[in-house]
UniProtKB/TrEMBL annotation:
It comes from the Eukaryota. This is 15167_t:CDS:1. Keywords: Signal. It comes from Cetraspora pellucida. Residues 1-18 form the signal peptide.
Length: 134
């Protein structure tokens, strides 16, 4: 029964942590998007009138990001997709090839290991140490 309680409490604790971090990430993302929106508006307002694009005057961008009907991000975060691509296309293959190389080297060392020679070397080493103590 104690294992069940430990597993259950672990699930509850991990669920609470996941919920907390998910909300924290969503809040941080919305704050970042709000700052980007405000900075974009400031930059657009600072442009001279002859350089402003007609699409900039579109009223859709003037809506505050948090007042939109769907405040959740519409596009994936670029850094997250870049990280996912790095892991899938570079980290995993590199890790896999390094792992395979180390396993192959270990297997070669184990198959070429001479037990009788190692025992003789260990025996002579112990005898030399024993004779030097006397």
């Amino acid at each position: 029964m104690s294992k069940f309680i430990a597993v259950l409490s672990g699930f509850i604790a991990s669920g609470a942590l996941l919920y907390h971090f998910q909300n924290e990430i969503e809040d941080n993302t919305s704050q970042i998007r709000l700052r980007l929106h405000n900075t974009r508006n400031q930059l657009e307002d600072s442009l001279p009138s002859n350089l402003k694009d007609s699409s900039v005057t579109d009223q859709n961008h003037l809506i505050h990001p948090s007042k939109r009907s769907n405040a959740r991000p519409q596009l994936p975060i670029p850094s997250l997709t870049q990280t996912q691509n790095y892991i899938n296309h570079r980290f995993i293959p590199t890790f896999k090839s390094t792992w395979n190389e180390h396993v192959t080297n270990l297997a070669n060392k184990l198959t070429s290991f001479d037990v009788s020679e190692s025992v003789k070397n260990a025996k002579s080493f112990v005898e030399d140490k024993w004779n030097n103590k006397k």
